[in-house]
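Support reply, case 0932

Customer input (verbatim):
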Amino acid sequence: ASDRTTLWADASMFLLNHPEGIGWSGLLYDPERGYPHNDYLSYGIACGVLCGLVYLYVLVRLLLSLLTDSSSGEDHNAYGLRLAGIGVLVVIIINSFFDHLSANRWYFNVMWSVVWYAYMSSQPIDNLDEMEMDSATEEETAGEAALPYGTDHE
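Our regenerated output:
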């Protein structure tokens, strides 16, 4: 079976017969049928239906997070980084439907590195004011500790 739709149909039927997954044994399902060329089906066959759905959910959730992020504002570097993350996620989502991203480890690692870097860089620092206050308090405390014993601190 070389036609991908036939492979997907076979893999889907196999997944319905084994919704709990069969484990990652190197062969995702009957080798006579071939590799399904779909990461969602592959992860589902290997680790269960829930795993395939979680993989899709994580990708879509990350994409939506980057699409709805408006924190970059006038920062062109942050905006460019966010666009890079969006582009890579779109490629991963589409590629995962038609092929297996993990076949090329270098490609896989670079793509996920860009996604996580873009996502983590887009997250706001909620406690920035607290960090600045802590830093000022530490500087005052350090300055007071440097005064000789018995000296008026004011």
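We compared this against your earlier run and they match. Two observations from our side: The mean pLDDT is 77. DSSP finds six helices and no strands in the chain. Please reopen the case if you see a mismatch on your end.
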